[in-house]
């Protein structure tokens, strides 16, 4: 169980400035649709759970709700804001940047907003990266494009140098948009800021195309990625049905979590097999994947296999894979291995086969956000600005159980979200594909 102390939200100090947004809302008292004051969102919000633990409801772990405050910490006229995007691309990055700039400038009156280029390296003098002045005019139409107007990179940078840059530019608020590595880097920035006694708020907008951030409903960009992935599954199905012994093999993103593979499969319902990191599988033997696939191709004439990039790494016989700049293990290519092994197995069995291999990973992550994700990104940006202007720091903004909340960064990186092999999502995948519960 998550402890109450794990959910404590850090703030820079007592609020002291009337919120312009609160004024425009007529100074109304707190409601779900206006300015947030005293409220909380239970981490476990069922009375039965409270009773089972023998705790009063008010003592249960809870999350602070997001939204505008009646009083804010920073004076908008004197506030300078920085924005940075880190890690791999994801649909919606430009939407978040645009949302932050428009909310800061139009609703709070902040006029000094800069973007740091190419991730955390944009703070480090030796890279020679200049900052980009962000105005409503600059960001007006960037949501029509994929990627990020600021650029991105992987890898750690010295937090002392990052904070040096914040001091040189008189940055009061820093928004970091990225995954768990980015958030861990932001926590180090907060540590140095605290050691120097600075009043700088650091707020994160979590980004992961794999939807593996714990405790939140869904990460931005996931809906778009899933929708794009269905196109490749459909193309693989068309190819498979159009050739004797046709097999469509699709590798999708998902290093540690198979959510894209699962949801894209359910949306298209053309796949015969789905392989994800959370469920080990055997390739060889009478009950292994290859033999089951052979029988299906002989019975039906075709098949479609969807595999997440992190699945079946135990089968990839390569040298030590090494690590990328962020310290992530470089996975072996399970897609190409499967293609090779499938062809070899069916050839050895005398079964005609035509394998078509699809790897749409970069195409999926580089597209513009769809309307759902665009709206979601805008709302996340609004919540992030409200949190930062109220002096919240070392938090991410996220949606949990349909409510926007402030989540402490340590909690956000405490574990990964995974597909439950015994849960209803995976059961639905098994029903849709008809594949065995396990290959062994």
Structure explained in plain terms:
The structure is a single chain. The chain is of the alpha/beta class. Helices cover about 35% and strands about 15% of the residues. The chain has helices at about 20-25, 45-55, 95-105, 135-140, 160-170, 180-195, 220-240, 260-270, 290-300, 335-350, 360-365, 370-390, 410, 425-435; strands at about 10, 15-20, 40, 60-65, 70, 80-85, 110-115, 130-135, 175-180, 200-205, 245-250, 275, 300-310, 355-360, 390-395, 395-400, 405-410. The strands form four sheets. It has a nine-stranded mixed beta sheet with strand order 3-4-17-16-10-9-6-7-8, with helices on both faces. Strands 12-13-11-14 form a four-stranded parallel beta sheet, sandwiched between helices. Strands 1-15 form a two-stranded antiparallel sheet. Strand 16 (about 395-400) and strand 17 (about 405-410) form a beta hairpin. Helix 5 (about 160-170) packs across helix 6 and helix 7 (about 220-240) packs across helix 8. It starts with 9 loop residues before the first strand and ends in a 7-residue tail after the last helix. Residues about 20-35 have low confidence and may be disordered.
User: What percentage of residues falls in helices of 4 or more residues?
Assistant: 25-40%
Distance between the termini: 34 Å
Main beta-sheet annotation: 9 strands, mixed
Oligomeric state? single chain
Tell me, briefly, the overall form. elongated
Strand content: 15-25%
Mean pLDDT: 89
- Total number of helical segments? 14
Number of strands: 17
Give the structural class: alpha/beta
Extract low-pLDDT stretches: 22-34
Widest sheet: strand order? 3-4-17-16-10-9-6-7-8
> Compute the gyration radius: what is it?
24 Å
